Structures are given as structure tokens and as C-alpha cells.
Amino acid sequence: MSATPTNPAPALTAPEAELLARRREIAETGIAIADEQGIDAVSMRNIATRLGVGTMTLYTWIENKDDLIAVMADALADQMLVPEPMPADWRAALTQIAIATRDVFTSHPWMLSGGRTPGRIGANMLRHVDQSLRAVSGLDLEWPQRASILQAIDHYALGYAVANQRREQRVEALRKHDGNNYGAAFKNVAEARAHKARTEAPVSRGETANAIELRALFESGEATALSEMFGSPEQALERIKHGPPKIEGDFDDGLRWMLDGIAAMLERDHPR
What we know:
Elements: H1 14-37, H2 44-51, H3 55-58, H4 65-79, H5 90-107, H6 123-135, H7 143-178, H8 182-199, H9 205-219, H10 224-230, H11 233-242, H12 250-269
Helix pairs in contact: 1-2, 1-4, 4-6, 5-6, 5-7, 7-8, 7-12, 8-11, 10-11
């Protein structure tokens, strides 16, 4: 693995240092608002109110809303950096990077909301990319293979964060029925939906056809695993819709399985 960068930080002029410090303060305030109220609540006016300054004052340091989002994203990229020096072992380094990536997106779920145009890439994001490249620099692989490994780990961390966000939303919806008892909430919701399906006529041809198909599927004995696991179409649909409860250690297990596969590939194709 390449050595940890040791060059001293370049000296900044007083105006340069103030510009960066002000932008960081505004970014952190925007992040706090987004964490509390969602990304739609982030505006120059709301940030100015929280900082106790006039809205126009912020435009001394921030160009526009796109610039604001870009500087917020780069501030969060700083949280994705792992402590230097990184582990010399590629598995340990990638593990730290994956955990840091997962934690940032899990702690700030609004970053996963769609509909925003990718913004400017900042210095902290480039630092994150540099760390990722250094983590696999010692592998006896061509660049495309190294890039594929990094992409797989990144996709796993981000995918886990997305799945976790959706799971939390589903669990929160179920809590409205039975507090924190996930099992009881799931059972009650499934039974309520089944009762409604039995006592109320479907409101559309699509629902009618779907109900017929589900009944035929379960009564035919074709879906043996679903029948054994859930018992009824209603319960199967409800569980699949809401997903499983949080499994302790599932991220670590999945990441270890991925790294084991990469290690096996290296041993097979590039034996020492």
C-alpha cells in the first residue's frame, strides 16, 4: 500500500482561511437543519436565521443553493475519511472505508433522496477516493479489477444504507400499531389487511385479479417455501412488504463474505 501523505498543509492567506471557515460553518448548519427537518428545509434564509445573521450575508460566502448543497456534501465526505495511517492490510482498510461510508449515509438519510443533480466534487470527496485507491494499491491486479472491487464495496455500503433507511421507515409505520413489538405489529397489520380483503370488495379489477392469483398460488401448493414460512398470502405479502427486522451484525457478515470472495479470487488468479 502506498505511504501515508506527509506533506505539510499549504499556508493559506487570511482571506482564504476565512472563506473556507465560513463555508464550513454554513455547511454544518445546513447539515444540522437537514438532519432535523429534511433536505427540503435547507435554505439560505433558514441557515441565516440559525446563525443569527442576515440572509444576504451568506451570499458573501455561498454562491447559490447548488453551491450550498455541494459544500454540505463535501463536509459530509470529510466524515467518510478513515484515520491515517490506514491499515496496511487491504481487507482492514476496505472494512474501515465501508463502515465509514455506511455510517455517514445512515446518519444522514436525506443524502439518499433522489431528484438532485450531482454537484461539484470537493476536496474531501477526492480524499475519500484517494484513500480507497491506496487501500487496493498493493493488490496484484490491473486497474479495472481494482476499480471493480472498490465499486462493489461502495455499492454494498450504500445499498445497506438505503435498505436500512427503508427498514426504519417500515418499522416506524408498524410502531404506530403496537409500539416496539415488531412481531405483534406485523401480525396485527397482516390480520387487519386480511380481514379487510375478506369483508370489502376490491376497488379495482387489478386488485380482484391479484387476489385470485394469490389464492390460486397458495392453494396449488406451488409456493411451498412461502407457505411454510408465512402460512397465508396476506401474511406473506405483509412480511415481504415490510421486510425482516434488523439482524444484528448483518453488515459485518455481508462485508466479510464479500472480502472472503475477493481474497479467494486473488489466491486463485494470483497465487503468491
